[in-house]
Amino acid sequence: MNNKTVKELKKAAKDQGMCGYSKLTKAELIARLSRRNDMDSDHDVWENAREDARDNDVWENAREDTRA
């Protein structure tokens, strides 16, 4: 991210729906975007784990088998 311009970083902030980015310095933009990306990736890990658990729900699958 360090090789991006302030304009590019502000566009990325806007695209991600961030508020209050217009007066931030390049370092602040990088820090906030990085933090936001870290939070998003953490969320994705947990969301993927939940989806996997739902897909592999043994009890739900057994219930469906008994109904069939």
UniProtKB/TrEMBL annotation:
The alphabetized list of GO BP terms reads: DNA-templated transcription termination
Fetch the InterPro entries from UniProt: Rho-like_N (IPR011112)
The source's superkingdom equals Eukaryota
Q: Where is the Rho termination factor-like N-terminal domain?
A: 3-32
One Pfam family assigned to this protein is Rho_N
Name assigned to this protein: Rho termination factor-like N-terminal domain-containing protein
- Origin species, per record, is Dreissena polymorpha (Zebra mussel)
